[in-house]
Structure formats: C-alpha cells, structure tokens
Amino acid sequence: MTERDLLFELQCLSRSTARKRFRKDIFAAWDHKCAYCEKPDPRTLDHVIPKSRGGLTVRANLIPSCGDCNLSKSNEAWDVWYRSQTFWTQDKELNILEWVNRDHAETESAREYETLCKEPLLLPSLEDAA
C-alpha cells in the first residue's frame, strides 16, 4: 500500500466518521423522534426543502423523519404537506421553522462534515497500483 493509498483511506474514513457524527447529532437534537409525527427512533433524514427543488444537504435543511412521513411527503413543500397531516400542530411546525432558520455554523459536526465534503477525494492513480 502506497502513501497515497493511505491518504485516500484516511480521507474516506474521516468522511464516513464525519457523516455518521453529523447524522447522529441531528437525531439527538430532535430527541430521536420524527420531527413531524414524533414517532421514536426515525431512521431517515428528510430534506425539508427537497433536493429536487434546490434543497441542500446541510444541517439546517435536514430533520429526522420516520419512513412513513418521509415517503408520504416525498418532494412536496413541507409546510403544505405537514398542515394536511392529522398529527400537525402549530408548535411542531414552529420547531421545524426555528430549526431551518437557525444558524448551525456553531455546530462542530456540521462544520466538519461540510468541510470534508467540499474537499475532493484523492484517488490513487493506476500507476501507484502497479
């Protein structure tokens, strides 16, 4: 294994670790409940503004979501979809709005994840493999 291979492995490990920590921190911030219906232990993160509508994969645009809510919402505008749900409450909607509008720059895991994802991975060259 070359020095370049080791650097590549270290970058992949760092990105993977940062991604896991980034996700874990978002779930913890919402007390491990779906932000919409409050079911415990959601497994997915929902893009509040869907990627198909220009939403970014940044902390302010990601909230924990159970599979049912995430699938049901799909790429609809979150507020229109959410207000039509039987579990909608004004307090929960305000919590989501506060999250979306909060400055997440102070969150170390968000900074680390976004920094690592902006850096291109150094792929080992075919010459190094020979």
Overall description:
This protein is mainly α. The protein has a domain at 31-119: DNA Binding (I), subunit A, CATH 1.10.30. It has six helices and two strands. Strands 1-2 form a two-stranded antiparallel ribbon. The N and C termini lie close together (11 Å).
Summarize the structure.
This protein has 130 residues and is mostly helical.
Cα gyration radius (Å): 18 Å
Q: Report the top-level CATH class of the domain at 31-119.
A: Mainly Alpha
Q: Approximately what portion of the residues adopt beta-strand conformation?
A: 5-15%
**Shape verdict:** elongated
Low-confidence runs of at least 5 consecutive residues: none
Largest sheet geometry: 2 strands, antiparallel
What's the SSE blueprint?
Blueprint: H1 3-29, E1 44-47, E2 62-65, H2 67-73, H3 78-83, H4 90-101, H5 108-118, H6 126-129
Defining key terms:
130 residues; mainly alpha; DNA Binding (I), subunit A; two-stranded antiparallel ribbon; 6 helices; elongated
